Amino acid sequence: QVQLVESGGGVVRPGKSLRLSCVASGFTFSSYGMHWVRQAPGKGLDWVAVISYDGSTKYYKDSVRGRFTISRDNSKNTLYLQLHSLRPEDTAVYYCAKDSPWHQIKWEFDYWGQGSLVTVSS
Amino acid sequence: DIQMTQFPSSLSASVGDRVTITCRASQGISDSLAWFQQKPGKAPKSLIYAASSLQSGVPSKFSGSGSGTDFTLTISSLQPEDFATYYCQQYNNYPPTFGGGTKVEIK
Q: What are B50-91's pLDDT values in tens digits?
């Protein structure tokens, strides 16, 4: 069965950096686009970034572009999100999510990880 | 960005009730709409895609309908495990956007 397991969250000061990881299993990771979606405490869902199956295409939410970097290592079945210049408003649970269709970005999230909490506070 | 508006934002219902949640898009999105269920402290779970297609393994008490700007999620007979928050999401236009959620509580 599909499993996505995030790690790397924690408490960090404003302006600092953090890297999240998401290890995938149960499907052919290298054939699917992957997303990061976040949820601030008590709030709704907010898409952050996507990377194509081969890493050649990346898109970001406006407010994180230039500060966050999405990447993947298909040999390790792992998705990453590097977060730089963190702000208090970046505080959220960060979920990785699999896109549905093979070899496409369709923004259709069919499986989600359990999430990793990032807290930005001084 | 396309704005997704869900209503009601919360509702109270009893076990066995039929429940309907509405989602409205600020512009037409064809049938590019998904519904998710989220329980406290858990990840969202995909229920429906393409407005009315049931995700594999999701019970048939869940159904979706609509096209264009107006969509509904219906739970035919509410069970204890269905008390959760439900979100709609459009994927017709970049960036993908979510509704604000509907919390279904026990009456």
A: 999 999 999 999 999 999 999 999 999 999 999 999 999 999
Q: Return the ∠ at Cα A98 (arms to A92 and A99), rounded to 5°.
A: 115
Distance from C-alpha of A28 to C-alpha of B18, rounded to nearest angstrom: 39
Is A107 in contact with B94 (Cβ distance < 8 A)? yes
DSSP strand pairing (B53-54 vs B4-7):
unpaired
A95 to B43: CB separation less than 8 angstroms, yes or no: yes
Kind plus residue range of the DSSP H or E element containing B36:
strand B33-38
The pLDDT mean for chain B works out to 96
Q: Are A92 and A59 in contact (CB under 8 A)?
A: no
What is the strand order of the sheet B70-75 is part of?
Answer: B4-7, B19-25, B70-75, B62-67
Q: Which of A109, A116, A117 to mutate to test the interface with B (most CBs of B within 10 A)?
A: A109
User: Which residues touch B90 (CB under 8 Å, ≥6 apart)?
Assistant: B2, B4, B25, B29, B32, B33, B96, B97
- For residues B91 and B93, what is the distance between their CA atoms, to the nearest angstrom? 6
Query: Three-state DSSP class for A89?
Result: helix
DSSP calls for A4-46: EEEE--EEE-TT--EEEEEEEESS-GGGEEEEEEEE-TTS-EE
Of B46, B94, B101, the CB nearest to A110: B46
The mean pLDDT value of chain A amounts to: 97
